[in-house]
Write a structure and sequence with these properties.
The chain has 22 helices and 13 strands. Strands 1-2-3-4-5-6-7-8-9-10-11 form an 11-stranded parallel β-sheet, with no helix packed on it. It has a two-stranded antiparallel sheet with strand order 12-13. 33% of the residues are buried. It is α/β, with parallel strands linked by helices and 606 residues long.
């Protein structure tokens, strides 16, 4: 037995001598290196060596830029690695044992390899840098500094489509940003597509602003498709992107199917009549949205009426902005019908929509029955004081009215309005009103003298024709006179024109600026002036007639009652003087010129 033990001990010593890096005594020695301290002690199997490799197993929390399985954005930047670029997160690969010449028989074995997991990068910082490198764009330092914020505001950075691609790549897996504002970055259609693909994967962002990015109709389709599938976004701002009728069709589907979005801004786009017809039914079907902005578009005629019908049937929208469109009187009537039936709308802005006094009166019919609307904005509409009075009258007839604020900005109001307002405030003490001021505080400017009107008056008074007048100036019968000849001719007739008026008349007639007034130019100028006068007279007459109607109804009368009082002989016709006297008897204050215009307008056959 003793011989066997001696033999085993001898074999062990030989084995130790044969191991690399051992001395004659069989001990493991570490060759000294420059600047090194004392040789380190050999590590036991029970204690981890500092030189061990760190290994990340499959399934680590660390994700790559390829995103989730099936991601549309997986190949946006090529094979972008998600390895960390920071020295403190890299795994050391040099083993002390290897430096000492250890082989597979060393003390460190697979059993002792520590699984050190690399921390998950929730911001996508490394992915962004690698994406920028692959795409060929310069990383935006502001983005790198704020990737961990809950709200990222990157307005006016000039990202362009490729810059948006790099950012979208990193945001696929970002879990910190909840609000994303990329306003005015010239993303165009392709950049909008990258953001849309990212939002299909990202389930954290709930507030998005892509306004003023020139996305256009082409880029609207991927955005609309994303909105149909996205269940995270609550507020979306897409103002000023040049969206037209094609985009309206795409967004109509998104509005109809999305059940998460609560606020949408499509203002400052190019939506016209067709767009309104597409968006209207979608608005009616939506059952989630609370705020909708369609201001600064071109909604008019059938499109405006379709939008109004959509509001009539909608059951969730509380705030609606339709300002700066072209609803007109027909659209106003449709809005009146909508608010008569709608039971949820609280704030309505229809400022600057070409609504006249008649349109305001039609809209007011809906206010008689509405009990939810709190704020109504109608400023900058050509409805004058009579239109404001009509709105106030409708509110006064509704004991359940919830109106708290009326905005009639830039519209002058008269005493009748002020008197009715006092009565309404007794019913609604908290009512706030904004107007353009009292009409009595502004003196009516004296109309600027029209030289062409004076010229035509002279011709009619002297029973002349234009050609007769022109022949007096045209001494050589060339049917053309110089400006000086025309000036001298006007002065010789005795027509009362100041030097300024005469110069304005010459500028009006000399269209081609050649210094000559031809007979054809005189005729054309007279015809254009007549057409302008006709349009102006019609506008004035309609406004006076509406004001007269409101004035009469205020006193509990009807237009028929007033006319019957004028028609003393029961012939169903009255003379111009009878009409003039009858209107004066109603107590309405009208200028003689206004009354003359009204009579001319009504007396169609002269």
């Amino acid at each position: 037995m003793a011989d066997v033990e001696k033999e085993n001990l001898k074999n062990l010593e030989e084995k130790q001598r044969s191991r690399p890096g051992t001395g004659s005594q069989g001990k493991i020695s570490k060759p000294p290196s420059a600047g090194s301290g004392p040789a380190s002690r050999p590590h036991s199997r029970a204690s981890p060596a500092p030189s061990r490799k760190s290994v990340s197993r499959n399934g680590s929390a660390r994700s790559s830029a390829k995103g989730r399985p099936g991601s549309k954005i997986s190949n946006m930047s090529g094979d972008v690695s998600d390895q960390s670029d920071n020295e403190d997160t890299r795994s050391k690969t040099t083993m002390d044992g290897e430096a000492e010449g250890e082989g597979s028989d060393g003390y460190d074995t697979d059993l002792e390899i520590e699984d050190k997991r690399i921390e998950y990068d929730s911001t996508g910082r490394t992915t962004y840098k690698e994406a920028c490198k692959q795409i060929g764009v310069v990383p935006v330092s502001y983005f790198l500094r704020h990737m961990q914020d809950s709200e990222l505001v990157m307005m006016h950075h000039g990202l362009g489509p490729l810059g948006a691609k790099a950012i979208a790549t990193s945001l696929v897996t970002n879990t910190t940003i909840l609000k994303l504002n990329l306003r005015d970055n010239w993303l165009e259609a392709q950049g909008g597509k990258y953001i849309a693909e990212m939002l299909i994967e990202n389930c954290y962002i709930h507030d998005l602003d892509l306004s003023y990015n020139k996305i256009g109709n082409e880029g609207s389709e991927p955005l609309a498709e994303m909105l149909q599938d996205n269940s995270t976004l609550e507020r979306v701002i897409l103002a000023g992107n040049g969206f037209g009728d094609k985009a309206a069709g795409a967004f109509a589907g998104a509005i109809m199917s999305n059940q998460k979005m609560e606020a949408m801004d499509l203002s400052h786009n190019e939506f016209g009549e067709v767009s309104g017809e597409l968006l209207g039914p979608a608005i009616a079907e939506n059952s989630q949205m609370k705020a909708f902005d369609l201001s600064w578009n071109h909604l008019r005629r059938k499109g405006a009426m379709a939008v109004a019908e959509g509001i009539r049937d909608n059951i969730t929208i509380t705030t609606l902005d339709l300002s700066w469109n072209g609803f007109g009187d027909d659209g106003a009537a449709a809005i009146g019908e909508a608010i008569r039936n709608n039971k949820t709308l609280e704030v309505l802005d229809i400022s600057n929509n070409r609504i006249s006094t008649e349109g305001a009166v039609l809209l007011a019919k809906g206010l008689i029955e509405n009990d939810t609307l709190r704020v109504l904005k109608m400023g900058k509409n050509p409805m004058q004081s009579a239109g404001c009075y009509g709105i106030l009258k409708g509110i006064s007839q509704n004991p359940k009215s919830a109106i708290q604020e009326l905005d009639f900005s830039d519209i002058l109001v008269n005493d009748d309005f002020e008197e009715l307002l006092k009565q309404v405030k007794e019913m609604l003490p908290a009512l706030l009103t904004k107007t353009g001021g009292a009409a009595k505080d502004f003196k009516k400017a004296k109309p600027r003298a029209d030289p062409m009107t004076k010229l035509k008056a002279y011709v009619e008074k002297n029973n002349l024709r234009l050609v007769d007048l022109f022949n007096q100036f045209d001494k050589d019968k060339s049917m053309s006179v110089t400006r000086d000849e025309f000036r001298q001719g006007i002065e010789s007739t005795g027509i009362d024109l100041s030097p300024d008026e005469l110069n304005r008349l010459l500028d009006t007639l000399d269209k081609d600026g050649d210094g000559e007034i031809e007979y054809g130019e005189l005729v054309f100028g007279a015809q254009a002036h007549q057409e302008q006068e006709r349009k102006m007279a019609k506008t004035i007459a309609q406004d006076v007639l509406t004001a007269l109607k409101m004035h009469i109804e205020k006193r509990g009368l009807r237009m028929w009652d007033v006319f019957r009082a004028m028609d003393e002989d029961g012939s169903m016709t009255v003379s111009r003087e009878e009409f003039r006297s009858g209107i004066r008897n109603t107590g309405i204050e009208l200028e003689d010129e206004e009354l003359d215009v009204l009579i001319d307008f009504l007396d169609k056959d002269g």
